[in-house]
Amino acid sequence: MEDRVYVGNAGKDATMDRGWLLGHFREHGDPRHSHAVEVKWGVHPRGDQRAQWVEGEVRTALLVLISGRFRMEFPGRSVLLEELGDYVVWGQGVDHSWVAEDDSVVLTLRWPSVPGYAVPQETERTSF
């Protein structure tokens, strides 16, 4: 049974894979491997932003604010999450980006889990 159970800490485990805890990118046999969903524990310092917009999105996503102030950008719309539990959902075909207005922690769920959206690690985070 232990092979199918994983116990961890989101804050510690998130430092290993740019915040991603669960998804297609985990090794087969790891209980965190999934093609159905991806889960990210995002810890973002103030001023952190996505280096480039996600375009041609084929997934649906839910982002929940745990702490801080976090802004999601969509074409023609900006959404500020500032109270514990504020969240935003966007669907397939919705381009997006983000910026942490204060030190922030967010939980993101995306489905399905598909490759092809990672920003190269050396350019993923930028500051104002």
UniProtKB/TrEMBL annotation:
<protein>
    <submittedName>
        <fullName>Signal peptidase I</fullName>
    </submittedName>
</protein>
<dbReference type="InterPro" id="IPR011051">
    <property type="entry name" value="RmlC_Cupin_sf"/>
</dbReference>
<dbReference type="InterPro" id="IPR014710">
    <property type="entry name" value="RmlC-like_jellyroll"/>
</dbReference>
